[in-house]
Amino acid sequence: MTDLEQALERAASAAAALSRIAPRLRAAALVAAADALDARADELIPVAMRETGLAEPRLRGELRRTTVQLRLFAEVVVDGSYLDVRIDEADPDFVLGPRPDLRRVMEPVGPVLNFAASNFPFAFSVAGGDTAAALAAGCPVVVKAHPGHPELSRRVADAVAAALESAGMPVGTLQLIEGQEDGVTALLDPRVSAAAFTGSTTAGVHLASLAASRPVPIPFYGELGSVNPVFVTPSAAGEADSLAAAFVASVSGSAGQLCTKPGFLFVPEGAGLDAAISRAVSDVPEHRLLHPGIAAGYRARRDAILGAGGVSVIAEGAIRETDDGTYATPTIVRTSLRTLIEERDALLDEAFGPLSIVVEYPDPAALASVARDLFPGNLTATVHLAEGDPEASLPALIDALARTSGRVLVGGWPTGVAVTPAMEHGGPFPATTQGGTSVGTAAIGRFLRGVAYQGVPAALLPPSLRDDNPWRIPQRRTPRGASAAWGTLTGVGTSEVLPETTGVEA
Amino acid sequence: MTDLEQALERAASAAAALSRIAPRLRAAALVAAADALDARADELIPVAMRETGLAEPRLRGELRRTTVQLRLFAEVVVDGSYLDVRIDEADPDFVLGPRPDLRRVMEPVGPVLNFAASNFPFAFSVAGGDTAAALAAGCPVVVKAHPGHPELSRRVADAVAAALESAGMPVGTLQLIEGQEDGVTALLDPRVSAAAFTGSTTAGVHLASLAASRPVPIPFYGELGSVNPVFVTPSAAGEADSLAAAFVASVSGSAGQLCTKPGFLFVPEGAGLDAAISRAVSDVPEHRLLHPGIAAGYRARRDAILGAGGVSVIAEGAIRETDDGTYATPTIVRTSLRTLIEERDALLDEAFGPLSIVVEYPDPAALASVARDLFPGNLTATVHLAEGDPEASLPALIDALARTSGRVLVGGWPTGVAVTPAMEHGGPFPATTQGGTSVGTAAIGRFLRGVAYQGVPAALLPPSLRDDNPWRIPQRRTPRGASAAWGTLTGVGTSEVLPETTGVEA
After folding, report:
1. Which residues does UniProt call coiled coil (chains A, B) (predicted)?
2. Which of B51, B62, B139, B259 is catalytic?
3. Does residue A117 lie in a domain region?
4. What 3-state class would DSSP assign to A257?
5. In angstroms, what separates the C-alpha of B425 from chain A's closest C-alpha?
6. Best exposed site among A144, B26, B212, B488 by fewest CB in 10 Å?
7. ipTM of the complex, rounded to two decimals
8. How far apart are CA A54 and CA A44, in angstroms?
9. A19 φ/ψ angles, rounded to the nearest 5 degrees
């Protein structure tokens, strides 16, 4: 048996075992995984620095985000509202005829294959958001390591797998595989029930099409490309120095290798930010790019943008090859809205690295259609406005951005993604392949499927659906007779029964 | 401009307009559509009878189910919990550093293309479950009419479109297109954001692959094939007459042309049901099949099953061709579990029509693995057991059925799908292409996407996310400081704020 075959076999067995483990134990295992990573921070951070070129403060923050994420998902598991429990009481008076007892709960989909990202070696990698969400859902996870940080991936996988097993989770709850070939083989294997991916649009589209073409297709949750436009209204364009400094900081952090890096800054014609941007860029030290593939891709996109007609350079930046990798400083260019439209083939694609395009627009009333036509799918879109901004087209712009992106910001910068219940880190294609957020507690929904139980005696029901509610989770009940009022616009007639704070624990 | 082009253009405009209409108005429009259909029942039922061959009581029941469904979705809209509103208060003490106000709501995906089914000319057609769910979500719907009931489709579309417009919905909220070519063209059109389908596995797989291969892929929610196995434990096999009568009724209702028809009945060896089944079948009158395509498919599947080795006929049934269509009486065959495994290629596929296979099994302990290995994806699975059943393998069987189907029944029969909050009418492939129920209130989730608003002033927020909560919907709030407790397994710290029962109405 190959290592891959063993991993898939173990994942399949773990799926059955894991789904029968009580939520509190699964939650405690997630906390144990977080503790194990925090305890090994001083060992892991230097490995991550060496393999990715990312700076220590960034990596320490990212590891903390990763362990907070595991702890948050532990709370989600205990809370139980993600199970969306619905109980329709048996109803002899049901409007369409007598109806048996019907109960529905979200159950884990089965083994999840997670293609790790290069740019977040902790938070979107072995023990990152997709893994945390899938484990919280009750799914075993097979992570395909990103080749950009293999040693870190193995160490994190060892630490997390050991912590999960010590906490009582089955063997095979978290496993690592390596290499593109094994990743594809696993994606096509019938034992894999869903896949998650963070990476390039090219690779993501290819893998998504493989997932869709299987004899049994599976969902493929890919987070691909995003250019995160930022729109500055005329009344907000005045503070050139602070605007330029914050813009350059957001573009250059982690050498611009973030899914949420602002790739476009729209400013009114004649906003005159060049000098301020140029000054801000001169303060940014060079930063190593993650790996040769990203360096090559960045160089190609940067060449295409610099070579497009009607583009002027504000700060050209440098790209320096060394034995230790490729180093870059930020490149910022300026163009007009008209040129952006004319040169859209050269300019619109994501440039993954420290580059951004300042676009001067003649009239803010045009921005809503710019958003709709040129930026149809993004993770984020941002508007900078002044307090009491008189710009009449703002509501239309916000509306357009909400249709074309997953997160709309007013003020601030899109880099920095909070791990909280209300986060959405997904968006229309190509931001994500089929919707669903990969950050925040709603991410768990991607790895669940609904199952209804009709007329099933309590002894054979999952604990989540029992009237005695041993897991003490929210249950929404539709009482008999509720259907008589449907059509009166008074509500479905379900009521949420919150759990007792004390009681039996399973 | 072609009719199709006009329909797609109208759907795109309607999407923007519809998303700005207050929920109460949208809900009232759904009720108006239901009223319009109820008012035209005496006109519509005869058309449906003529075009489908289905019986009047069945069609009257189905129309009632369809209008109840619209009324239920109106309640879902008013209730607002489907919006899953999450409000994370700005938090200077957030565990990963100060965090702005973040609010998330589910918004409509945009125009939905709904491929109507042949077998439910009301409930899974022009104004059926997919349409009701999509309209409730705030999405305009383009229905591709099923060619089996064109006149009925046009009349229903006219009635519903007029009712929706009279109730203030934009032109293009519900539209009908006809013909396979227009259906495919629409599926590939960039203005369509999601598709729903109920029909054959062959057609569904083809359309799903088209949806996945678009430059911008869209979700394709197909409900395809299901054989709905029923397992009778030894202690429940005693009541031969009542078991046989109920089984035959479930197999032959609507001439077996139901997605939930039990295609397999597992009984203990020597259960001796043949005579009782034969008697029950002899009472079933012949029934017209829906259309020539279904008749041809049924004949082919029936021939394959009758021609397989090791299959004996309990009731052979008849197929009679007339100028008015093809008529059939039920065919029930019997085989052994061993033969079923050996002849799986001939026997396991769905036979859409009044045919079912009785399978004698030697040992109930084998049924869980039978379910997993032979029936990996079904809408339903049923177990018949006696009260206090001593069968030790029952929990394993229920567990296997919950992994391989969307609805697990104990007792009763899978035909007859309640339209309620806890229904799940979906299941692992090929039951559905990518999960998600097409019946019940959870069906709305397929046509929504999450959008987060970060730091957005109240005046620019959607009403659902405002602190003054003008739509009076549930909002889940995470207060500042909640993150300090993450990892203590006391819960996420969000709390549901239910709406005031009186207040401003938007």
Report:
1. none
2. B259
3. yes
4. coil
5. 8
6. B488
7. 0.97
8. 13
9. -70, -15
